[in-house]
Write a structure and sequence with these properties.
Blueprint (H helix, E strand, L loop, with lengths): L4 H25 L16 E11 L10 E6 L2 E7 L1 E3 L4 E10 L3 E11 L4 E12 L3 E2 L6 E5 L4 H8 L2 E3 L7 E4 L8 E6 L5 E7 L5 E4 L8 E9 L2 E9 L1
Parallel strand pairs: 1-8, 1-9
Antiparallel strand pairs: 1-5, 2-3, 2-6, 4-5, 6-7, 10-11, 11-14, 12-13, 12-15, 15-16
Length: 237
Amino acid sequence: MCYSDTMKTVLKNIGLGVLFLTMIFTSRSLIAQPTSWDLDITEFEYSASFTWQVTYASSLSVEEGDYMAAFVGDEVRGVVSALHNPNLDQYFFLLLVYSNVPTGENVNFKFYDASEDKIDEIDQVFTFVADQSSGSFSNPLSVVIESITAVEDKVLQEISIYPIPFTDSFNISLPENNLGNYTLIIRNLVGKKLLKKELIPQQFTYEVNALSSASKGIYIVQIEFNGAVRNYRVTKK
């Protein structure tokens, strides 16, 4: 097929434009996401979309290089980096979630803060429905990330919960050298609060039997320490 000189110039410019766009997207993809968040979307038949907006309770803010991922159990079902909307001057996460069944799977989400190199679990669970859209730029799904100081973060990381999985009860072990204010909250996967209890600072081990009559499955144990929050997943067998 023959092209005029004008057409050749247009095609050349288009080619340069495609190359330029490829370079842009390639350079952005170099911002590392957690290595465990890899996904091959060709393995799935169905998809659904979720539009998220993440804000902080502190002065931190979402930036390019932050990621959000969707999970069914421990399996990654979607991952996307932060997208800046210039009209709103805000960052959003336009996340496609994948499945091989049209409906019924419980989907949970995690947020990766690149500047802090930290992953936060989001306490919202959705039921997958193929081709369904949840959230938008004008009305996004939203989550607030609580700020945690280095001291509080260290304390929360030292908390242990055992045995996991449990049958009737589990134990919470608190650090013995931190006498701050602790609050225990337990929720099911749809966010219903099942227990809220203040923990006595002088007692360092607690037996929790609030789920003794509950159904088998996964529950969210939330522990607050001096205003900081961390979530733990426990499984009842």
